Amino acid sequence: MDVYEAVKSRRSVRGFKDRPVEREVLERVLSAAAWSPSGSNIQPWNTYVMTGALLAELKTSAVERVAHGDPWDKRQYEMYPPMLGTPYGERRSAFGKERYSALGIARDDWEARQRAAIANWNCFGAPAALFCYIDRDLGLPQWADVGMYLQTVMLLLRAEGLHSCPQMAWSQVRETVAEILSPPDGLILFCGMSIGYEDPTVSYTRTGRAPLDETVTFVGD
């Protein structure tokens, strides 16, 4: 699979087979992803990969917590600004509409929306999950470095025939994750990522992208 195909076929998959992901494949992907760029090569990502019984335990704990209506953990970073201006707010709203329409969920069906959201903490059935932390003392440029690293991981997973779904939702139950991973003090959980083989029986709608002239300005000849 060439780079263009990997980029265009990458998407946030929300339905996985229970087929295990081989450890050697994950090691190969993450070894290559270590070559992602970072300012002054500080490599600010701290990654944990979870599979098997421990992941099953985490899924159960997180799903039960959310299903019982327990309060979210206090955010360690702002997921979105309180007010999303144009065109970002419109894009976010369009995504939500497309997402729930594909699931056949009406806008005012709050219970169905909650059930769909809970699937996040079951990793959408994925047999492997990655949890990416960053040191709380690092700055915005290092958060950007982590983003480049995660994108590299996702593209390499596509090259291996795998799919993924990055999930900031895990930061809302970070204490539940920490009970199993026991990360060092000073690390912030940025996101989780479900990893596995796509279940083709799960329907989806591919979200669109803004036209090039809306996001890119060419200057010069």
UniProtKB/TrEMBL annotation:
Superkingdom of the organism of origin: Bacteria
Pfam families: Nitroreductase
Keyword terms of this UniProt record: Flavoprotein, FMN, Oxidoreductase
Record SUPFAM superfamilies: FMN-dependent nitroreductase-like
Protein's name according to its UniProt entry: Nitroreductase
Oxidoreductase recorded as keyword: yes
GO molecular function, one term: oxidoreductase activity
Domain Nitroreductase: 7-197
